[in-house]
Amino acid sequence: MLIMNTRWLALIACSALLTGCAGMQNPQKANLAHCANQLKASKAENYPLVLQEGDLCLQKATLPASLHSLIYAVQADAYLNLKRFPEALAAKEKSMQLVVKPEPRAYLDLSAMYRAAGNPKKALELVQYNLDNGMGEAGKGTGFNMPTYYHLGLALTDLGQYREAAEAFSTGLQRQPDYAWAYYARGIAYDHLGNREDAKADFMKFSQIVDKKYLEQENKAKLAEYKISMP
């Protein structure tokens, strides 16, 4: 399940700003229309259009480094949702190279992309980098919350370290007990450990609070395996 997190709310403001600039008569501003269109397409989850408009934005507009980085980040998100993993990784790494100090969440995003591309070892290294350097989601020294522990648990699961994965999800749930997908992920870890009782409890909790529109067939199949019906 790939969804935009709260950081993407910034796209709305950026899109409005770019649209205003694109409407001006100054030819130097006109090329920003493609950049604004890319952000609008991302909000609408029209990923092929995101890539098309993003490429035109990068070709035709002169951008400050911060906006240049954002455009590549949005491209990376689109590639990831289209399961074009090598291109997602390349775009995300370009985005991070364009800023002096990438934010901690960028490393979590990159971790997710490496995991999706089948490289959980690299994914774990990226989460561990944040942990080792005290880089919480809001910056150095701010502490760690669900996103860090969720990505840690997913990487550990893919590496077959199920007990450690379950512990990571549990730590995350202490900080955010309403995050449905952490219950599902911990249930998967318990399932691999042969702990069907705790797995079923987590899958049951997941079924009660998850936004059903994001359920995929494998999620439904796992719930059916445990004889859990969606409310």
What does this protein look like?
By secondary structure, the protein is an all-alpha fold. The chain has 2 domains: 8-95, no CATH class; 101-231, Tetratricopeptide repeat domain (Serine Threonine Protein Phosphatase 5, Tetratricopeptide repeat, Alpha Horseshoe). It is built from 13 helices and 2 strands, in the order H-H-H-H-H-H-H-H-E-E-H-H-H-H-H. The protein has helices at residues 9-22, 27-30, 32-43, 47-60, 65-81, 85-97, 104-116, 120-132, 146-158, 162-175, 180-192, 196-209, 217-225, and strands at residues 135-136, 139-140. It has a two-stranded antiparallel sheet. Helix 1 (9-22) packs antiparallel against helix 3, helix 3 packs antiparallel against helix 4 (47-60) and helix 11 packs antiparallel against helix 12 (196-209). The protein is globular and about 55 Å long.
Largest sheet: 2 strands, antiparallel
Oligomeric grouping of the chains: single chain
- Strand order in the sheet with the most strands: 1-2
Q: CATH homologous superfamily name of the largest domain?
A: Tetratricopeptide repeat domain
CATH topology of the largest domain: Serine Threonine Protein Phosphatase 5, Tetratricopeptide repeat
Which spans of ≥5 residues are poorly predicted at pLDDT below 50?
Answer: 1-13, 19-25
The radius of gyration computed from the alpha-carbon positions, rounded to a whole number of angstroms, is 19 Å
What's the β-strand tally? 2
Q: What share of residues is helical?
A: over 70%
How would the global form be characterised? globular
**Could you give the order of the helices and strands?**
HHHHHHHHEEHHHHH
Structural class: mainly alpha
Question: β content, as a range?
Answer: under 5%
